Amino acid sequence: MTDKVLSKEQRILRVLRKVLANIVKDATPAPGMPHTFQEKTFHEIRDLFGQNAEREAELAAEAGRVMNEKPYYTDQPRNSAAVTVHRTPRKKPD
Question: pTM, whole model, 2 decimals?
Answer without folding.
Answer: 0.61
